[in-house]
Design a protein that fits this description.
This protein has 73 residues and is mostly helical. It is built from three helices and no strands. The two termini are 34 Å apart.
């Protein structure tokens, strides 16, 4: 969620931060021999490579009406 908003607010500067993370931080994370670290690294690399920060997060826009608005109290 934060990535989407950061990209909206900072645009090219946010892209530069992600590039720095990919170049400097990710290789260090890949050297760690921990299953949780590998999983987090894989998700981070996927997030950056697929540019998921450009897509609004699911649930960001709340519907005007939902099922609860049709239920009588």
């Amino acid at each position: 969620m934060a990535g989407y908003r950061l990209h909206q607010a900072y645009g090219p500067q946010f892209i530069k931060v992600l590039a720095a993370i990919a170049q400097q931080y990710v290789p260090r994370m890949q050297q760690v021999n921990d299953a949780d670290a590998r999983a987090a690294t894989t998700r981070l690399v996927s997030y950056i490579n697929q540019q998921e920060f450009r897509q609004p997060p699911e649930g960001r826009v709340m519907p005007d009406h939902d099922e609860s608005s049709h239920v009588a109290c």
